[in-house]
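Feature request, filed as a ticket because there's no other form

It would be nice if the structure record came with a short human-readable summary line next to the tokens. Right now we just get the raw output. Example of a typical job, pasted below so the devs can see what we mean:
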Amino acid sequence: MTVEFSAAAQVPDVIDTLVLHNSLKAWLTAVISAVVLFVLLLLLRRLLVSRLGALAARTTNQFDDMAVELIKRTRTWVLVAVALFFGLRGLTWPDTFSRYLDSTARLVLLWQVGLWGAAGISFWVKHYLGERATTSDRTSVAMIGAMSIGAKVILWVLIILTAVRSVFGIEITALITGLGVSGIAVALAVQNILGDLLAALAIVFDKPFDVGDTIGVDQITGTVEHIGLKTTRLRSIAGEQVIIGNADLLKSRVHNYRRQYQRRVVLNFDVTYDTKADVLAKLPSVVQEIVTAQSPVKFDRAHVSSLGESAIRIETVYYVLDPDYLRHMNVQQAILLEALRRFTELGASFAFPSRTVYVEGMAVADAKK
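Raw output as currently delivered:
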């Protein structure tokens, strides 16, 4: 009986044995807590991915898809670190070790935030390229890829600066001030280049035109061959290559002819003043018949619009329901040829610029003779 009592009494003594300023019971509790918390975090991550993934599959919103992607990017070793941190926090540690533990936890958290941010940037780039950029537009794809790399670099620089300030306690105010002053100096030195670069980004995102579009800028009309970081290159209708700075391009009024879905045409017929009134009254109807006989054309109106200095004008408006310029010219040619034939049959003559001058003195002298 005495021996059994002594053995039973030794069990509490072993559990209460101190190891690194903590009893074995405290260590056991910390380990069990860390393991349980790690398992719960794993289950929570799997549950969120499963539930949010099913929800994201039924919606068109991209935010839930991004949330699923970010949860997937949560590293398992980060979950292990979180579980160990909260498990070890229940133990008694020297002040120095406690500070190291807190600093390590902050570093792990900042690293995971950086991974989440990089994953969010990658998801946005993938979504943007899938929805808006075309496979043939290599310039946009390359520029967006470069932007994503730049955004990730800026993100990790901010993460490192935050870690230096909050974890290691190093004052970075002077460093940031110096970088800011240097950045302003560099920006002022290369402001024209930065203006063209920002204009290139505006072209990529706003899409006023794409490679292959025919555009008009001021007095220049040509096809876009290349959209660069600083310049855009056009192949003009005369054959030469025109290079325009991106900033200057966006400051101009750009006409994108490729996105034109129809052409409005104003066509004028000028006939002489000796045209009889009844023939003149028939001419708008004749023009309407000629225009409506063409295809694909939508007739708008035809009227005797004005009495000019040397002609009576018949103004005609119609729409060619095809943006192709060759189709537009073929239709206009057919209308002009048919109008020439029909007007001749009716006895109406086309006028040419002329002016009749009456001299009053000469008329009086002729009358006296």
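Something like this underneath would help us a lot:
Residues 14-169 form one domain.
The two ends are 169 Å apart (CA to CA).
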